[in-house]
């Protein structure tokens, strides 16, 4: 019985560690995977390196961005996308009745 009581703090620390580290990390991974799956043409995105561009072509593993005043095209892996700044679905204009 004394051995079980001495292991209790270690078990409690492992449970707290799991709750604090692994659960939020899994949520973040799911949210990022959903972001990559929801990419659409004409979405304005920011890469992990800080480049901002508009998606002009979507492929299975790669994305082609158009960036800068001269509209340079950049091919990068989907996992290089850091965030979506403006989604093309937000460009829909609502009509007033």
From TrEMBL:
Its main location: membrane. It is a single-pass membrane protein. This is Preprotein translocase subunit YajC. SMART domains: YajC (SM01323). It comes from Clostridium tagluense. Belongs to the YajC family. GO terms for cellular component: plasma membrane. The chain crosses the membrane at residues 6-23. It is found in: Cell membrane. One of its GO terms (biological process) is protein transport. The lineage of its organism: Bacteria, Bacillati, Bacillota, Clostridia, Eubacteriales. The keyword Membrane applies. It holds the Pfam family YajC. Keywords: Cell membrane, Membrane, Protein transport, Translocation, Transmembrane, Transmembrane helix, Transport. InterPro entries: Preprotein_translocase_YajC. The keyword Ubl conjugation does not apply.
């Amino acid at each position: 019985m004394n051995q079980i009581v001495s292991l209790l703090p270690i078990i409690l620390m492992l449970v707290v560690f799991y709750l604090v580290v692994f659960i939020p990390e899994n949520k973040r991974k799911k949210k990022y995977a959903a972001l990559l799956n929801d990419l659409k043409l004409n979405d304005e995105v920011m890469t992990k390196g800080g480049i901002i561009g508009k998606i002009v072509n979507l492929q299975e593993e790669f994305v082609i961005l158009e960036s800068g005043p001269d509209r340079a095209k950049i091919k990068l892996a989907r996992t290089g996308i850091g965030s979506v700044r403006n989604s093309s679905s937000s460009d829909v204009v609502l009509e007033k009745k």
